[in-house]
Amino acid sequence: VSGGLLPNLPAASSVAPEIDLLFVALLALSTLVVLGVAGTIMVFAIRYRRGSSADRGGASEDRRIEYLWSGIPLLLFLTIFAWAARIYYDLSAAPDDAVPVYVVGKQWMWKLEHRDGRREINTLHIPVERPVKLIMSSQDVIHSFYVPAFRIKQDVVPGRYTTLWFEATEPGTFRLMCAEYCGTDHAKMRGSIIAMRPAEYERWLAGGTPPGSMAEQGGRLFRQFGCSGCHSPHATVHAPDLHGLFGRPVQLADGTSVIADEAYIRDSILLPRKQVVAGFAPIMPTFEGQIGESEILRIIAYIKSLGTEEVRRQ
Ligand code: CUA
Fold this sequence. Notes:
binds dinuclear copper ion, 7 helices, alpha+beta, five-stranded mixed β-sheet, about 35% helix
């Protein structure tokens, strides 16, 4: 793996070189300001020390120098701000074709799950040169998913989904760490990201027998938890139809609308009274405390798959 701008730290994702450049630019600019200010203090302290014969009269009335030394740094730092904001903006939305990986953090391990149902602990296999999108939640406290070689880090928070995306540029094994103090064994909450060439990755995906895709497992849970009793076309109970739901706007009883994303489905399972769909009675029971984070992720994958089936049929 080639070294980046920074010694001893490989730059192995598409965004890493630009983050490094930003870091070095900020470091250089800050060094310049520190040296300028500290240097001037030193020179003045020596030149105008007590008892020196330096000329102390004739202070300049010219304000231009003050405008300059305020204006130039302001412009430089605003440029840095705009540059950093653009990178942040690019990093906030994953490309549509990104490979999804579901992440659950818990004391003290990373549970990772692929679309085909394959599960891993503390190790994540991914293809290079393809964007990968992580959809992350925590089962207990706040953790932080941190891959130094990719220059990415994102908090993993209980009760909500955070996302992160990256594109690895070189095959190799990279360190995964937890970057948020999360209890006794926080320091041991480590793992590896194994970036593989596409052909090698396909071979890895094909090896072994996956336990059924996440959507298939979600479908089983959907029946097991009794969701299908109300949310199926033949049910006698009047509940919203979930076909084609994912990604669409939903009209709520209070007149507002929301996009049916991962967080919306999760809330609907755990806090069904929070967002009641217009035209439906608030009779859905909560599944808080009965269903785990990984199970919710599988049910979400199932509901997503209902969407794609719908699209295919049209
Ligand atoms: Cu998990 Cu620190």
